[in-house]
Structures are given as C-alpha cells and as structure tokens.
Amino acid sequence: MAEASKETKKTRRIVVPGEIIISGEDHLPGDFTRKEDGNIVANRYGLADDTGRVVRIIPISGTFEPRRGNTVIGRIEDINFNGWSIDIGGPYSSFLPLSECPRFIDRNSLPDFAKVGDVMNLKVWSIKKGGVDLSLKSRGLGKLEGGRLIKINPHKVPRVIGKEGSMINLIKNSTKTEITVGQNGYIWIKGDVSGEKKAEDAINFVVEEAISQGLTEKIEKFLKG
Amino acid sequence: MAYTKRSDGRKMDEIRPIKAEIGVIPNADGSALFAFGGEEDGTVAIAAVYGPKPLHPAHMQEPDRGIIRANYNMLPFSVTERTRPGPSRRSKEISMITENALSSIVDLERFPGTVIDVEILILQANASTRCAGINAAAMALAHAGVVMKELVSSVSIGKIDDKIVTDITKEEEDWEEGEGSTDIPFTLTSRTKQITHLQLDGGIQTSRLKEAYGAAVKACEKVYEYQVRALKGEKNKRE
C-alpha cells in the first residue's frame, strides 16, 4: 500500500488484526487498537486512521453493534405478556416493553397494536448484559406499514444516506418511494412495485460501489438508465 | 528407496502454490477461501463466519465470554471415494481443534453469552485440509470484523522417511518405505509465532521435532503473506 501514503493525507489504508499501524511514542491507541512494545497494533480488520494523535480503526465489515440512541428498524419475532421481542440484528436479542409505547395499549391485546412479522422504526433505549431494550417514545418512531425490508451491511449505512441525506433523497425522489434507513443496516422501502425494486437495486449498487469516488453521479446515471 | 526427491518436483521446504480470497459467501458476515495447490489436485477450503449472535440453547452460554462454534465438514465429492456428509469421529475432532486454535486469538470477552459460528467446508481434499480450513477460518473471522489480537496461519510439516518436508500431499502421507511417514500440522499466530494447535500422526525423534517447528515458522510466514494480501486486495471488489 505504498501508493496510498503518497496521495493526500486523508487516504486511509486497510489493516488486518495484529498489523503494526504506526511505531513510536507520538501516538495514542484509539478504537480497536492497542499499544504493544511502543507500536500501535490493529485489533480488527478495517481502515486505519492515523491522521490525528489518536490512531483508530474504522470498521468496514461485520455485524451491528447497538449503541444507546441508535435509530434502528426491526421485525417482530415474538410477543409475550409485557412486550415484543424484535430482531434488529447484532449480537443480542432485543425487547420492546409495553411501557415504552407512547399510547395506552391493553395488556391483553398486544397483537392488536403489532403482530409477529410487523416492521417497526425504533430507538435503542438501553443495553444491558445479554439484551437490548428498545423504545417507541420519540418523534418519527412507530410501525411501518406495507413496503419491503432489505438488509445491508450496517457499516455501509453512512454511504447510503450520503452527506446530509443527499444520496437517500436522490433515490427517494427519482423512484418516488418512501425510504427509512435504520442504523442496523435494515432499510424499509415503500412505493409502487417498480419504484421499490428500483430503489432496492440502487441501494445495493451504492453498497457495492461504496468506496469509489463520484458515487452520486454514478447513482444518477444508474437511476436514469 | 530413500526419499530424495518429491513426486511433484517441489523442494523439501517448498509450499504448494496458495490461493486466498475473501468475500466468497455474500450472505455470511465474513467469508474466505483458502487453497493449497492447483485447481485439479489441491486442497480447497471455504469458511463462513456468522455472528457474534445470541446463543441457543441458553445452557451453552458462558456468562463471562462468548464461544466459538466451529463446524468442519468434508463435502461428499471432495475425495475420490464419496464420503458421507455430516458429523463423523474425524470431523468432530477437527472441529474441536479448530475451535481451540482460534479461541486464543479472538477477544471473546467482548460479547458474553454469544456465539460466533465458523462453518468450514472442504471442497477438494489432498492432505492438510484442517490447515486450509483454519487458514480460511482466520481470514473469515477477520473479514467478519471480529475483534482479535492477530491472525493464525497453519501448515502441515511431514517427515517422509528421514526428510523433513513442508506441506505434504496425500501421496506423501501414504509413504511406507524407510521410516515411513509422519504428519505434523502446526498452527502459529502471525505476530508472536506461538503455537495454538499442534498434532502429530506417526513418530518423530525429539531433535527432529524442533527442525519441523523451524520449517513450520518459515512456511507460516508465507501463508500469512497470502492471507494479508487477500484481505487487503479486497478493497476494490464487492463487500
């Protein structure tokens, strides 16, 4: 990767676990790195960012790691006496308790509000040992009716959204669909059938070409053609 | 007849040509292919990694750490005589040693009560299938973004008659003349060169075992080089 360092300072290179990112005492280990015998060593596969004093690794692959406050999309897997178990991906099972719903719901008729298989837009409320609690108490959260649910790699979500939503708005406007992107990589699309299909293809195209330059132009071309 | 020349013309310490690739299974969280030798007569293994994810049944969960669950399987067409797919004495043993070889490099404490599933399939077999499987699994784990200290590389060193040879084939494994054949698969960590797995099938003098370890260190460096190249070269391809 010699050619990478010759270019601008912002160019990042891929590192593998156990690789020495940078030597010397001028840097501090950040996310997913450790210090070993005066070297900063990578702890996972990803892009190394050594532009600042703190060296860190930006993940490019792998599963979703829930953080408090993440907006996610989930599908209901099961209903029990005081809430819903929801699949949001990631290492732990997650749960939406009845008390985190914004309006009154009769304890005996939970399926009237949401059934198994329904899709919801939710917020990660807390992460406890061995489980994630979700909430509906925030603006824009709730059930997503109709449409289709697709899954992408959660680390590609920022690329799909684009700068201040430029990419996703471009796709929304030209396919005339409603799109909601969860930070867990689940994307909900609603529109007419051909629009939904086109939006899905466009999103997968963004994911595949995530590292290339001038992506917005490529997508414009893709949506026209 | 003493063993002076290898049947495929390799030097005694020469490894078969290696092929390594990542992202071969789109639905997995991480995947890799690793092959020793050519397309017609080599050993080809693919590995897929899923997780970390919730572990069921719950009694298998460890409260202070996650676990790795490896599953090694030889596909029916991978050998000349069809093998029955599914667990056998041999495949269970290899699954276990793969788990042990990988557990010490992965940061399992990060996600307590979860499992990382590692599925290894042997598409074609010509000795050292477990080594190819472990090499593929290490790459697949890295590709899946699992937090780990370093990679592992695996290679099998043999003693054919009285010669220490690197990366033996099936033909060499079956050598019967002179002192016969010994197969010693090694798995070493990439940075610290520590042994995470070592097996020995046959007999060897204590002094020669050190010689075999030296050969393993040299060969594993070569394997590691290819693993890294595959992981880095992926940049311009699909995720």
Biggest sheet: strand arrangement of chain A: 8-9-10-12-11
Q: Give the topology string of chain B: H per helix, E per strand.
A: EEEEHEHEEHEEH
What's the helical proportion of residues of chain A? Answer: 10-25%
Oligomerization: heterodimer
Count of helices of chain A?
Answer: 6
Biggest sheet descriptor of chain A:
5 strands, mixed, barrel
Radius of gyration of chain A: 21 Å
**Fraction of residues in β-strands of chain B:** 25-35%
* Distance from first to last alpha carbon of chain B: 52 Å
Shape summary of chain B: globular
SS-based class of chain A: alpha+beta
User: What would the CATH topology of chain B be?
Assistant: Ribosomal Protein S5, domain 2
Give a concise summary.
Chain A is an alpha+beta fold and 225 residues long. Chain A is 22% helix and 34% strand.
Provide an overview of this structure.
The complex is a heterodimer of chains A (225) and B (239). Chain A is 22% helix and 34% strand. With 225 residues, chain A is of the alpha+beta class. In chain A, strands 8-9-10-12-11 form a 5-stranded mixed β-barrel. A 4-stranded mixed sheet of chain A has the order 1-6-7-3, with no helix packed on it. In chain A, helix 4 packs parallel to helix 6 (215-224) and helix 5 (193-208) runs antiparallel to helix 6. The longest helix of chain A has 16 residues, at 193-208. Chain A is flat. With 239 residues, chain B is α+β, with helices and mostly antiparallel strands. Chain B has a single domain (18-234), classed as 2-Layer Sandwich (Ribosomal Protein S5, domain 2), CATH 3.30.230.70. Chain B has helices at residues 89-103, 129-143, 170-173, 206-233, and strands spanning 18-22, 30-36, 43-54, 67-74, 114-124, 152-160, 163-166, 181-189, 195-198. In chain B, a hairpin with a 5-residue loop joins strand 8 and strand 9 (195-198). The interface between A and B is medium-sized, with 31 and 35 residues.
